[in-house]
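Intended use. Records like the one below are meant for learning the mapping from a protein sequence to its folded structure. Do not use them to infer anything beyond what is encoded.
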Amino acid sequence: MIRCDGLKRILIVGEVFVDRHISPREIRLGGIFHVARTLHALSSHYAAAWIAPAYLDDDCERYFQQLDAPISRKVGNVTGSPNLVEINDSAEAGEQRYVDLLRDKRRIQADPDAMAALIAEFRPTDIIVVIDTWTRSVAELLNVAEARVALDIDHWPDDDTIPLDTPPAIVFSSTSGGPFQRHGRNPEVLREHWRSIGIPAAILKENRGGSRAWLKGEISVEAPCFPTATRHSVGVGECFDAAWVAASEQEAPALRLRFASWIASFYAATFNHATFVDEVHTALTLDPSFALLEGVRLPWERRPDKNIYIAAPDFPTVDTRLLDELDAALRYHNFTPRRPILENGLADSSMSASLRRGLHAKDVALLEQCDLMIAVPISPDPGTFAELGWFSRSGKPTILFDPHRLARNFFVEGSAARVCETLGSVVDAVYEVLGRANL
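Structure written out for the chain above:
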């Protein structure tokens, strides 16, 4: 099994947030605590320098003790904002729709003396930084340290400069983060940007499709994601960051990348920290065959070529909001949904037989172009099931998305490779059935 480096002394620096998940209803401390939970599960030697509103101070001190941080110190106070984030789509089936209450009013008063004292006492070899509100006073907290700095910059408002005296050893970003969006959602454009401002190494996390790293010497490596039933994606990226940093520098980069992705998959599967710790401890006992574990790799730029046929009664007389949500979710993950009625038109009784045959031929041609079908029986419609049966005979994968349980028929269910009842589970299934074919 990949080794974590017991000689590393990892200092984590960042803000504390309260994560309020709308569905499922969960409230827990987030931000820097996602990193702390991971390092605790990995039995890493770490300390915490945290920034939070005063009302969270007692909770932070108590929880860091529970997570076995030998040193934790408040190095900045937040005013103007409760650091409360509402998450409307925890599983990130589509846009998560974060609401960071009073974000524009947030102000941080940093305490560089507290930070300097912590660094002198702990003597970190590595620093992981997860900060949403980046100011010169916050940057000054880090410029007193002689250690490898890893920055997660997904939520920074501006990534044209890194306000540190010494460039960080590595930066982390993701396909749902600000830097990726600001650079045209193009991995190579983002890579060139990091190179142009002197970043020696960077990692791009590609949601459920895997990850890639651009390292010194123009080395580029990639790793799969490991499928799980995603309960949430909040903090999963920070968990990935922590696992990468905790791993030994002597390990091959591709193996470290796989390891970080694997640990992150356990974090995404549960809100319960004790369960996460148990899963990680079990994983750490595996033999070197870990490197051979099958995963899912579906790079961002390949996804638009994956045409996904949505078989459904997409009629003007039917409430199609669920289809619209599915369409938006697939586009958010950079796939290409195909809705035959919107593309080819709708047959009606006034059409001649030849026009109807022509419309049928167009739909069949579209079916043949597609790599995957998602059948959504939102109302009784024999055409949806006819298309599902036709497509399943092609040998290409099919998903039955049936949240209203309208298709509880053994033959219909048997015609689908996956049966799903939530949009999040549909997205998981899309990656799994399409991503495995790309390994």
